[in-house]
UniProtKB/TrEMBL annotation:
Pfam families: TPR_Trm732 (PF25150). GO terms for biological process: tRNA methylation. Residues 540-851 form the tRNA (32-2'-O)-methyltransferase regulator THADA-like TPR repeats region domain. It comes from Nyssa sinensis. This is tRNA (32-2'-O)-methyltransferase regulator THADA-like TPR repeats region domain-containing protein. GO terms for cellular component: cytosol.
Length: 1064
């Protein structure tokens, strides 16, 4: 969030601000002689001044820099001297920071007039710096920092060095001013805080780069300060005031600590006050910042210098109070115990993070010092005692589960550094001692339990030192526990990092002890059973996480382990006469059920697909034959075998298992199986006949899943599948190996085929499957279909339309050999008006997603939908009528006109129905009008001004509506009475059954459309009758309530009300 906020501020600042040129600068520029002002540099400079945004100035300043560079090359000294001041003064102006890089780079490339530039820069520093300078606060330090940040300094280094004292004085004066403001309990703004951080960074660079400039300066070179003050004392005093203040950010404290450590490291800084008392009065955070500065700036020789100290020498202050050894160092005796105290007694999580960061820096300094033979242990001096080591370990254990991930990362680094230090310190005393020390640490880690995510990275670091087999000896069930822990999402990433390290170490150790071949068998005996138990556990989340995280690591380290895992579930290689017994599972006593074998198979297939181990597609085995109808693919024998290739080796599996996977009760397993069988991420090949047959089996069940997550994955799968199919078919057409227009007219039954089917056969199978799928999805949108089935089918239709547009473009219509027309997977009856009516009902459905999806589909249909635009208009009008503007108006004209338009529309529809009911039902959308009226009357406030101001007109409109309702009732009753003779004796036969419905669906849609004509004719009046029933009772209830509340409920109205009910 902070990064976005900074980006927003940056964009706002660049858009609405610009470099502020003072009036004196503009007047001096205008007073130049005509011959000088006509120079390119001055012309571009005047143009820069007129720009009012930083974005524009950043683009234009390049021209200014180019003109100045040309002037330095060919200009006279007098002209250049005057131009240099104008040029350099820009970088001292307010808001000029975005221009610094371009302006300074032009200076760095210069080879002429360097002395002129040097003198001018010194004058500008003195003129703009300090409290009495005319520049903004920190403007000089910002310029110096920009110049020191230039990749090619050249002579600019000398310029900055000459002005180092002036820059430091500007920094001190600016910081002192900010500190004085905070004394009144005011907090600096984020912009001021950023300026202070940059100023402190600049001062640190000056002290590190030019230390000689700050030596032996016993007086101030500027009259702004007292003469008896040294510049280093000024800097130290300012830093101390910042560290004592609570108003500055941690970043300012960190930069102050560096500056303080650097100034103290260079020389003994004269300070008139009591420095020890000043430091003792710091807040805990300021002390921590000071320690970090000392660790960063002070040399390791000083940090490791030994001295004999007593309690009296430290005036009652002794960090390592538990140590009785008088030999101390700054690093071990002072800093390390103090940091342990901060980590053990932290006030909040952020302070804890900073304390652990400094602890990491401290341990890094200790490790580097030991490697450089600084601070090695002796008889009378042990840098890190056992108590101190145990103290550090307790800090590590207590922070392994910190909610801040960055804190945990620091803890992991601290643990790694601590192990390196312990190994280096105790290695000379014998390997057995360090081994015992590491084993004790390992026991502590293992006792934390498998659900502790923070233990896995330290455990991996310990495995590299102790060995994987030693860790297994300490905890034989470690791998089983780790696999079970994958049920927790938070543990997955950390445990995967541990597994990758652990399995690699275990494999190498097995190779070293038993050779490569036997070593692999022993290694797989250790690691494969835990994974197989986890995959067969039946826990969906555990299996899914193992597929995502652990199993890819296992196969990447040992790709050939896929074969013993497949053999474990009785999936063998093609041509094997007997079952192969692998030594890896000789000690495994596990009997798997078919469901467990299927779950393991799906996981292995998914990860193998992901790692591109499976070559090609899954197809029928050579001895398996399948009878295939044209397009329908109905007769399939699932008792035979299928095969797939892994690393060139054919592996066979029962087709029945694949069907069980695609129809499994576990949704995640079904989607994993579908992705593994129907998608090949490495190529766009034509699907085999087996894949298409399996997809037909998977469609009915997976179309009615209630899970939104599953629906999203299922639609995403088909988006990829359609793309694969489209690419593969287009490739075959371009290669001239298949012409769909010539083959799609053939409707004969094909002979049985095995794996020897040609590319043409595959293309034909795929083309007819796509036509079947489009019909299947379309008929899944029948009016009484369940919501889950309907919405999934519509989303798949939309995806299919995106790949194959129903309406070809004009260019495609003119091109007779267009691939779009050749790859048209829809039947001619798919877009006829009668077929379109199946989707029309969903436009007025109560589910928003169904209305939206059906509307998007219908907009892409080539045939115009009758009255669709009128309904959209009425829906828009209804929403406008019911909003606040119309509710507050006194005139009822909008409402009555809207209701009249709907009733007039209904009147026209009823007249057409009375003339020819069959034709009217094909084109009518009366039930949509009735439902719109229903929604309108339900939402309309009958006591509002809209109704009361036009009560007579509304009564007349409702009387007309009642007349139309009676006529609709007559039509509906006529249809019901005419069809009553044909109703079956057992009404249960009419229950919706997906299997029976779909089994009667032909691939050719023309027959289905003609067969459904009778259904459409009968269902439309009945549907209208249902809507007008609801509408009538709603109108009567609301009208009665409105009349009675308004005081106009007379006997005449009461009589009319009961007359309507009696007639009805």
């Amino acid at each position: 969030m902070s990064a976005k906020w900074r980006a927003l501020q940056h964009r706002h600042r660049y858009t609405y601000s610009a470099v502020i040129f003072p009036q004196s600068y503009i007047e001096a520029l205008n007073l130049l002689p005509i011959d000088a002002s006509s120079c390119k540099f001055y012309t571009e400079l005047k143009e820069l001044i007129t720009l009012n945004s930083t974005y524009a100035q950043v683009n234009h300043v390049k021209k200014v820099a180019s003109g100045f560079g040309d002037l330095l090359v060919s200009g006279e000294e007098g002209l250049v001297s005057e131009a240099v001041r104008f040029y350099l003064e820009i970088i001292f102006l307010e808001n000029s920071l975005p221009l610094h890089k371009t302006l300074v780079s032009a200076l760095a490339k210069n080879r002429n007039f360097q002395s002129v530039i040097r003198n001018c820069f010194r004058l500008l520093c003195d003129e703009y710096g300090g409290l009495k300078g005319k520049g903004k606060r920190f403007c000089v330090s910002r310029v110096a920092l920009s110049m020191m940040s230039s990749p090619k300094l050249g002579y600019l280094v000398e310029i900055v060095e000459e002005c180092a004292i002036l820059v430091s004085l500007d920094i001190v004066s600016g910081l002192n001013y900010v500190v004085s403001e905070t004394s009144d309990w005011s907090r600096p703004s984020p912009t001021v805080m950023e300026q202070c951080q940059e100023a402190l960074s600049c001062s640190y660079y000056l002290l590190q780069r030019f230390p000689s400039k700050f030596i032996d300066l016993n007086s101030s070179p500027n009259d702004l300060f007292e003469e008896d003050l040294n510049i280093l004392e000024m800097i130290l005093t300012t830093i101390l005031s910042i560290l004592k203040s609570l108003a500055f950010s941690r970043d300012c404290g960190c930069r102050s600590e560096l500056l303080c450590g650097s100034s103290n490291a260079m020389m003994k800084v004269p300070y008139k006050g009591d420095l020890f008392s000043e430091i003792h009065s710091f807040s805990v955070l300021s002390r921590l910042c000071l320690i970090r500065g000392i660790l960063t700036a002070v040399s390791r020789t000083v940090l490791n210098a030994r001295f004999v100290a007593s309690m009296d020498d430290l005036s009652g202050f002794h960090a390592d109070a538990g140590s009785s050894n008088p030999v101390q160092t700054i690093l071990y005796g002072g800093i390390l115990p103090e940091l342990c105290n901060y980590c053990e007694n932290h006030t909040d999580s952020h302070f804890n993070f900073h304390a652990l960061t400094v602890m990491q820096i401290c341990l890094q300094q200790i490790k580097t010092s030991i490697l450089a033979n600084l601070g090695n242990p002796t008889e009378d001096y042990d840098p890190i005692s056992e108590d101190m080591g145990a103290r550090i370990l307790r800090i590590i254990w207590n922070n392994l589960e910190d909610p801040l991930s960055q804190t945990v990362k620091h803890v992991h680094l601290i643990f790694d550094l601590f192990l390196d230090i312990q190994s280096t310190l105790h290695w000379a005393k014998g390997s057995e001692r360090i081994k015992l020390c590491l084993e004790k640490i390992g026991s502590d880690l293992l006792r934390l339990g498998p659900r502790c995510k923070g233990r896995y990275i330290p455990l991996a670091s310990l495995t590299k030192r102790l060995g994987a087999k030693t860790i297994l000896d300490m905890s034989p069930d470690l791998l089983f526990e780790t696999v079970k822990a994958y049920i927790d999402d938070e543990v997955c990433c950390a445990s995967t990092s541990f597994l990758k390290c652990f399995l690699e170490c275990l494999r190498d150790e097995c190779w070293s002890s038993d050779g490569v071949e036997s070593g692999y068998a022993i290694y797989r005996g250790f690691c494969l059973p835990p994974f197989l138990f986890g995959l067969a556990s039946g826990v969906s989340k555990l299996r899914s996480n193992l597929n995502t995280y652990a199993l890819p690591v296992l196969l990447e380290l040992d790709v050939d382990s896929i074969f013993p895992m497949l053999a474990f579930i009785s999936v063998g290689q093609v041509g094997e006469e007997a079952e192969v017994v692998y030594a890896e599972f000789s000690c495994t006593d596990m009997v798997l059920k078919v469901e467990q074998q299927v779950a393991i198979l799906v996981s292995l297939l998914k990860v193998s697909r992901l790692l591109a181990l499976i070559e090609g597609d899954i197809d029928w085995s050579e001895n398996s034959l399948v009878s295939q109808k044209e397009g329908g693919l109905r007769t399939v024998n699932f008792d035979c075998y299928a095969f797939f290739c892994i690393k060139g080796i054919k592996v066979r599996v029962l087709v029945e298992w694949l069907v069980l996977a695609l129809t499994h009760v576990d949704e995640s397993l079904r989607i994993d199986a579908a992705e593994s069988l129907f998608l090949n991420p490495k190529t766009s090949s034509l699907p085999s006949h087996l894949e298409l047959s399996l997809m037909k089996e998977a469609m009915p069940l997976n179309l009615r899943c209630c899970s939104t997550a599953f629906q999203m994955k299922w639609t995403s799968l088909f988006r990829k599948f359609f793309s694969r199919v489209r690419t593969a078919l287009e490739r075959k057409i371009k290669q001239g190996g298949w012409q769909p227009l010539a083959s799609c007219d053939n409707s004969e039954v094909r002979p049985c085929k095995g794996t020897g089917e040609t590319v043409v056969d595959r293309a034909d199978d795929l083309f007819h499957f796509m036509k079947w799928l489009s019909c299947f999805l379309f008929f899944s949108c029948y009016p009484s279909a369940p919501y889950e089935r309907k919405i999934t089918a519509m989303e798949l239709i939309l995806i299919m339309i995106d790949v194959w547009p129903i309406v070809p473009s004009l260019q495609e219509k003119c091109d007779s050999v267009s691939s779009e027309l050749s790859l048209y997977p829809y039947n001619k009856g798919f877009t006829l008006p009668d077929s379109t009516l199946l989707l029309v009902g969903s436009i007025i459905d109560s589910w928003d997603r169904l209305r939206e999806s059906s509307f998007c589909i219908l907009l892409r249909f080539p045939t115009p939908l009758p009255e669709l635009h009128v309904m959209l208009f009425t829906s828009s009008s209804r929403s406008k009528m019911l909003n606040g503007d119309y509710q507050n108006c006194t005139s009822g004209s909008p409402a009555i006109e809207y209701v009249r338009s709907l009733i007039d529309w209904l009147h026209l529809v009823v007249e057409e129905g009375e003339k020819d009911l069959s034709e009217a039902c094909k084109k009518s959308f009366a039930h949509g009008v009735l439902l719109t009226l229903h929604y309108t009357f339900e939402e309309l406030d009958w006591n509002s001004n809209i109704v009361l101001s036009s009560i007579s007109e509304m009564r007349h409109a409702l009387e007309k509506l009642l007349e139309l309702v009676m006529r609709i009732t007559s039509l509906a009753l006529w249809v019901v009475s005419a069809d009553a003779w044909y109703l079956p004796e057992d009404m249960d036969d009419m229950v919706d059954d997906d299997g029976a419905f779909l089994s009667e669906v032909s691939v050719e849609m023309d027959v289905s459309v003609s067969a459904s004509e009778h259904e459409v004719k009968n269902s439309k009046p009945i549907r209208m009758w249902d809507h007008q029933n609801r509408l009538l009772w709603l109108v009567l209830a609301r009208y009665e309530r409105g009349e009675s509340s308004s005081g106009n409920y007379h006997k005449k109205n009461s009589f009319a009300y009961f007359r309507i009910i009696k007639v009805w």
